[in-house]
């Protein structure tokens, strides 16, 4: 049976590693150490880093199944944009001196892009819907889970029925079995989520619940959710920049508290009384 060519760049490198000539193996090991360099370096620069010839680089990328070095570099660049953080690692030789400034500039750019596409009435309608819901569900996976937990923790101050899923020790089905058309579900769809995140978003829509999608996955626009809030997460380093996602979660929470009215203020007062009674803070 003919073996299938691995899809990702890193998988291709690992697949051919045992069969490489020693010089090509040295190049492969250099690439595996810092795969992100492929996205920004020329063939000559990669050859210099690995101390091999340009011809070795050409043979290497052909063995990987790419027609040219440029094709391989484009593949790495695309996978780094949408996939593993490993492909956003480099040797650091192209880094600017002011690392903090670079990250700050990228965070500002992401916030500008996110808020520039955000309609204020969208946040208001979501905040009011949260108050009318029988139960509010918040779901996130991997990087999305702590962000969903943060948003859930904040709105719990004024909303009595909030669930963040998946809950520890439960299957997702056990957590959301009671999802209904009277509910609002907020699903964080971020890059490299497990496939179940998409399945959950579809299930929430199918249940008849009002669904808000917050994330950086372009295909989430295809889901017929009521709210689609797109966040820019472009990064200047190996990790995606989730500053704008946190900012949106904070905005939703703040607006939810602001429109909570007498019932929200009463709940906050009851919580403060309980803090005093338990001497918890």
TrEMBL record:
Residues 7-83 form the HTH rpiR-type domain. InterPro entries: Homeodomain-like_sf (IPR009057), HTH_RpiR (IPR000281), RpiR-like (IPR047640), SIS_dom_sf (IPR046348), WH-like_DNA-bd_sf (IPR036388). It comes from the Bacteria. GO terms for molecular function: carbohydrate derivative binding; DNA binding; DNA-binding transcription factor activity. Pfam families: HTH_6. GO terms for biological process: carbohydrate derivative metabolic process. This is MurR/RpiR family transcriptional regulator. It comes from Marivita cryptomonadis.
């Amino acid at each position: 049976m003919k073996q299938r060519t691995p899809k990702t760049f890193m998988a291709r490198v690992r697949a051919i590693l045992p069969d490489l000539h020693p010089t090509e193996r040295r190049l492969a090991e250099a690439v595996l150490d810092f795969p992100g360099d492929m996205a920004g370096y020329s063939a000559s620069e990669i050859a210099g880093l690995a101390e091999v010839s340009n011809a070795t680089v050409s043979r290497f990328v052909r063995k990987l199944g790419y027609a040219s070095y440029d094709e391989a570099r484009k593949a790495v660049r695309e996978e780094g944009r949408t996939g593993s953080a490993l492909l956003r690692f480099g040797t650091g030789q192209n880094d600017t001196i002011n690392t903090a400034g670079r990250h700050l500039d990228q965070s500002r750019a992401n916030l500008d892009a996110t808020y520039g596409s955000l309609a204020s009435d969208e946040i208001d309608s979501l905040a009011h819907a949260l108050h009318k819901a029988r139960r509010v569900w918040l779901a996130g996976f991997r990087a999305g889970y702590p962000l969903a937990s943060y948003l859930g923790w904040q709105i719990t101050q004024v909303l009595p029925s909030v669930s963040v899923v998946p809950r520890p020790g439960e299957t997702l089905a056990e957590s959301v079995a009671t999802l209904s058309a009277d509910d609002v579900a907020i699903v964080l769809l971020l890059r490299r989520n497990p496939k179940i995140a998409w399945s959950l978003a579809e299930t929430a829509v199918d249940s008849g619940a009002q669904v808000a999608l917050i994330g950086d996955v372009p295909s989430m626009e295809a889901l017929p959710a009521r709210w689609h809030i797109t966040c820019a997460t472009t990064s200047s380093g190996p990790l995606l920049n989730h500053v704008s996602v946190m900012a949106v979660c904070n905005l939703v929470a703040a607006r939810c508290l602001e429109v909570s009215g007498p019932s929200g203020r009463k709940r906050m007062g009851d919580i403060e009384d309980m803090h005093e009674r338990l001497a918890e803070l």
